[in-house]
Amino acid sequence: MSTFYEMGVFNDEYYDMFPGTKQNRLSTLIELISFTLLYAQKGPICDKHYNLAKKLNKGDIVISFNYDTILDDALQKAGKLTDSGYLVEFSKVFKNKTWESPEQKESEVNLLKLHGSLNWNRCKRCKLNFLLKSISVESRLDMFNYLNPKCIRCDTNSVELVLIPPLIGKNYHEFGVDYLWSDT
Ligand SMILES: [Zn+2]
Description:
By secondary structure, the protein is of the alpha/beta class. Helices cover 33% and strands 19% of the residues. β5 and β6 (128-132) form a beta hairpin.
């Protein structure tokens, strides 16, 4: 039993279409998902999400299986989501075209993204997480052209998107978000 994605990514019948190792094919799948979603969420912040964000109260917790940052952006615009609101320990935050330390301010709302998020990166080598924030989708698209960005700590191409694709054997531990499931 395997999912549609696993059939596409791992089945050797498709080797000619998706050459490379299984890990390469998985990376290709993640890139395709991220590009598709980044293009799909281009434009101004969605009014419906913004209205929902405004209605949320201090202490509310939103559990999401989505990778996109539509609700994240709406919550930030409403002043209800800070860097700590994801309950992910970020080493650095990319903001205003530079890397900064995460803000310490408490988040009114917690947003638990159990399958990862388009704006989370993780260095496989250092086991550090990075948050990409306050940048337009256009510049995110530019940033994702790097696809294998260098880690600002170890300076190797070990950084990957924290985006856990729809596979049966999801490895949350590898992406460093397994504890979010127990928190939930
Ligand atoms: Zn690193």
